[in-house]
Amino acid sequence: MLQSIEFVNEDPVRAAEKRAEARLVRAWALVVGPALVKHTCLLRVRNRTLFMGCWKPEIIPNLRKSAEAVWPEIQARLQRLTRIHLQKIEVLPCDAPEVQVVLPPAPPADPLAAVLTRLRNQGWTPRRT
Asked: What band does 43 get if pLDDT is binned at 50, 70 and 90?
């Protein structure tokens, strides 16, 4: 199997952890479920430990207890979904992710003029003289 270019010059263990993190990011909602996906994120994978971040300090103690109680189920889900074998989970406080606001492009002042300009540039309509 070919390795990703960014992992070639790295320590094999760290490269495997980075690949595991990339798979976990894509499957995070399936791993933690719909209730926790809104309050948690993957921080890192190190030494066969999943470090999960939570930006709601009031739920971190309960989340830690719940994580310990359901760890065998989460572990099985991780192995089934991502083929990652981890030994434990740690819940840490973290900052909330930044919300990115994507604004739609502003419509042109005259939509017909914009279409005609585009068509003229493509050679579809003759230019007025």
From this structure: very high
- Measured CA to CA in angstroms, residue 82 lies from 4, 33, 73, 76, 128 at distances of 17, 15, 14, 10, 61
Please tell me what DSSP assigns to residue 128: P
pLDDT of residue 53: 94
- Rounded to whole angstroms, the Cα distance separating 66 from 89 reads 11
Structure tokens at 87: 């030994």
Question: What are the residues whose beta carbons fall under 8 Å from the beta carbon of 20, sequence distance 6 or more?
Answer: 45, 82, 84
Q: Domains in the chain, start-ordered, CATH in brackets? A: 5-93 (3.30.300.20)
Give the chain's mean pLDDT. Answer: 84
E strands of 27-101, at which residues?
40-46, 49-54, 88-93
Query: pTM here?
Result: 0.67
